[in-house]
Design goal:
The complex is a heterodimer of chains A (about 180) and B (about 150). Chain A is an alpha+beta fold and about 180 residues long. Helix content of chain A is about 45%, strand content about 10%. Chain A is built from six helices and three strands. In chain A, strand 2 and strand 3 (about 150-155) form a beta hairpin. Chain A starts with a helix and ends in a 22-residue tail after the last strand. Mean pLDDT of chain A is about 75; it is low at about 115-120 and about 165-179. In chain B, a hairpin with a 2-residue loop joins strand 7 and strand 8 (about 145-150). In chain B, about 35% of the residues are buried. The chains are: A alpha+beta (about 180), B alpha+beta (about 150). At the A-B interface, helix 5, strand 1, strand 2 and strand 3 of A face helix 1, strand 1, helix 2, strand 2 and strand 5 of B.
């Protein structure tokens, strides 16, 4: 005579047939769910205890070596560090030098005289005429630079001729130009 | 990091040289203004210009065209600070110059050209280094009065 558990195991394995199957299924309908769950859990535990153990490895070192090789093969290769070139500092040094020269030229331009077109024409020989004005409406005052002679000229037109007695010069003193 | 530190040091050294050298060069000498009153005429037998005008004779001829240049008066004035200068090459014609040192080697000069108490013209100019200015003044007799201004 099979117990309920043996019948249940046979029923799960599909081994119950015919009249025996009909009787067990009729009996099963009267059994509460909790008891069925308990029975199923117990049977699952028996199966796991019997078949759930991992096989013992006999060559563990070889297994680890194989495993590491597969892991390394699946990893992307690290980027190779570029070889240090000879004179590798030269481009950066050239860049720094170019920047220094550009900055120096900029400062030199800022420190120098203004470079408007008009003043540039008159800035030769270091005499930059900024403004010229006649003191008499009949007189016109014009300034220009003679490049050929390297001299700035203030040209007054319309000034009345001086009578001879008024133009009496004072005697030349002893001062002389240095060059 | 050491490379960038060296570059920064080189850069600042270069900048110091660029800034300091012109400043020292421009400020190492005090300027003076030499002014001269010249009478330019055309003569059949032109005399040689005096020694003071010898170096300007060719330029004067090229600019004004006369063949004789006579020195009527001259004056030398130191221009070492911000002050007013009266350049008096003659009793009747003279220049008033207000000079202001803008920065080492650069002067701002305001010139007034006077005929006794009458202002003939004024000029605002900036001076750097050696400067030569000719002023064509009033006519005198059969010639022309010219003022030479030399900043040196």
């Amino acid at each position: 005579m099979k117990t309920f558990e043996e019948k249940f195991t046979a029923w799960v394995d599909g081994e119950l047939k015919g009249h025996e199957l009909q009787e067990f299924e009729a009996e099963l309908a009267s059994v509460k769910d909790a008891q069925l769950d308990k029975l199923a859990s117990r049977q699952l535990g028996d199966v796991l205890r019997e078949h759930g153990r991992a096989p013992a490895l006999q060559n563990t070192d070889f297994f680890n070596h194989q495993l590491m090789q597969q892991i390394e093969a699946s990893m992307p290769a690290p980027a190779e560090k570029p070889a240090r070139r000879k004179m590798g500092w030269l481009p950066r040094f050239a860049l720094a030098s170019a920047f220094s020269v550009a900055a120096a030229l900029g400062i030199h331009q800022m420190m120098g005289p203004s470079a408007s077109p008009q003043s540039a024409l008159e800035a030769h020989n270091g005499f930059q005429v900024i403004h010229t004005q006649a003191g008499d409406p009949e007189i016109t005052a014009t300034s220009f630079y003679s490049q050929k002679n390297d001299v700035t000229v203030l040209w007054l037109d319309g000034a009345k001729s001086m009578p001879k007695k008024e133009a009496s010069p004072k005697p030349a003193d002893k001062h002389e130009p240095k060059n | 990091m050491a490379f960038y530190r060296r570059c920064a040091l080189l850069f600042f050294a270069a900048m110091l040289g660029v800034v300091a050298v012109p400043a020292v060069r421009a400020g190492d000498a005090s300027e003076s203004i030499w002014s001269a009153l010249v009478l330019a005429t055309n003569q059949e037998q032109p005399a040689e210009p005096p020694a003071e005008l010898a170096k300007y004779a060719k330029k004067l001829k090229n600019i004004f065209g006369y063949n004789q240049y006579e020195l009527l008066g001259q004056h030398l004035e130191a221009m070492d600070s911000t002050k007013e200068h009266w350049l008096v090459p003659s009793k009747e014609l003279f220049l008033r110059a207000d000079s202001k040192l803008e920065k080492p080697g650069v002067y701002r000069l305001k010139l007034e050209f006077w005929e006794e108490k009458k202002l003939l013209a004024q000029m605002d100019a900036k001076l750097t280094g050696q400067n030569l200015l000719f002023i064509r003044g009033p006519a005198y007799e059969n010639g022309q009065l010219i003022i030479i201004l030399m900043v040196q």
